[in-house]
Amino acid sequence: MATKSSDSSHEQPPLSYRKSVEIKATHDQFFVWREFLWGGIAGAFGEGMMHPVDTLKTRLQSQIIMNATQRQKSIPQMLRTVWVGDGLKGFYRGIAPGVTGSLATGATYFGFIESTKKWIEESHPSLAGHWAHFIAGAVGDTLGSFVYVPCEVIKQRMQIQGTSSSWSSFISRNSVPVKPRGDMYGYYTGMFQAGCSIWKEQGPKGLYAGYWSTLARDVPFAGLMVVFYEALKDLTDQGNKKFPQYGVNSSIEGLVLGGLAGGLSAYLTTPLDVVKTRLQVQGSTIKYKGWLDAVGQILRKEGPEGFFRGSVPRVMWYLPASALTFMAVEFLRDNFREKGNNNNNVVSNLSIERKTSSTSVHEG
């Protein structure tokens, strides 16, 4: 009878043990989804806070399409133009699609980055390290692009229009035909009206204008940002070992290192951002036939400096936005580790109890 009891106890773990494993699995899934949520909120928050700077960047990069014959404005001149023409409203045009797109990208970026990184390191050990970080960041950003790109197209077209009065003034001042030829799009009153209008006039191709150029910008950017962030973290960890008295909270570390990683990646990918913006704001006025044509025209007509138009506001946008995002994610990961460790202790204790009870039955 003792042997039978022992065998049955091995075949069927105690109910308390099974429940603890189920709780742990559910707990882990909850925090994976929380990382999606946290990433989305952090991305949307960063976009909302820094949208005026993004508007300035878009205006600077697209002004040659809007006013090809005029001398290109500097940052202070463009600031004054937006303020005089549109007031504060002008800086916040397109904020709804901007926040929506950033929410989707933030969620997929941080939601998939850890799982993708672990999968690569386990299944392809040769790619562990910086390559795993780069690929994980690229995959997360690519998945968000299906929502992000249409939102980006709508946002940027609304940004360059400003308010209805300034857009009407621009059309009349520059004798730009709006309809029926459709050389330039009509005024967009909101996110959904803009989306429907673009769909009606240009179909899916209009909403996904510059899709491949967006990926050409965002895949390197996302990958580089993770690589730089992880590399800076490695350097910081080494510094903390040598000088532990100067160690800081991981959230503060995320704030500083995330800002540096985002700012550096943003500057290096500015040329790709210029090409993407030009392709997306041109509408049905085909100034550039494609990505390579845009690169060639910018180089011939504006020189190398044309590729870095808007680099200052682009870096100004990504420094704080990336800093806040990584700070939030590090805060989440800290909480996850603490609660995860507590659950592991519970399961370990139950395993010991199970072994003890099984031995007692066998001895009895």
Structural features, described:
It holds the Pfam family Mito_carr. There is one protein chain. With 364 residues, this protein is mainly alpha-helical. It is globular and about 60 Å long. It has helices at 2-11, 15-66, 75-86, 88-91, 95-123, 130-161, 164-174, 191-202, 204-207, 211-242, 250-268, 270-281, 291-302, 311-363. It contains 14 helices and no strands.
State the main characteristics.
single chain; 364 residues; mainly alpha; 81% helix; 0% strand; globular; disordered N terminus; transport; transmembrane; MCP_transmembrane; membrane
Give a quick precis of the structure.
By secondary structure, this protein is mainly α. The chain is built from 14 helices and no strands. It is globular.
Distance between the termini: 10 Å
Radius of gyration: 26 Å
Task: Report the biggest beta sheet as strand number plus sense, adding barrel if it closes.
Answer: none
- What are the low-pLDDT stretches, counting only 5+ consecutive residues below 50? 1-10, 15-31, 179-183, 343-364
Anisotropy-based shape: globular
* Mean pLDDT across residues: 75
- Extended strand count: 0
Number of helical regions:
14
Helix content: over 70%
- By oligomeric state, this entry counts as single chain
Pfam families: Mito_carr
Organism: Arabidopsis suecica
Family: Belongs to the mitochondrial carrier (TC 2.A.29) family.
Keywords: Membrane, Repeat, Transmembrane, Transmembrane helix, Transport
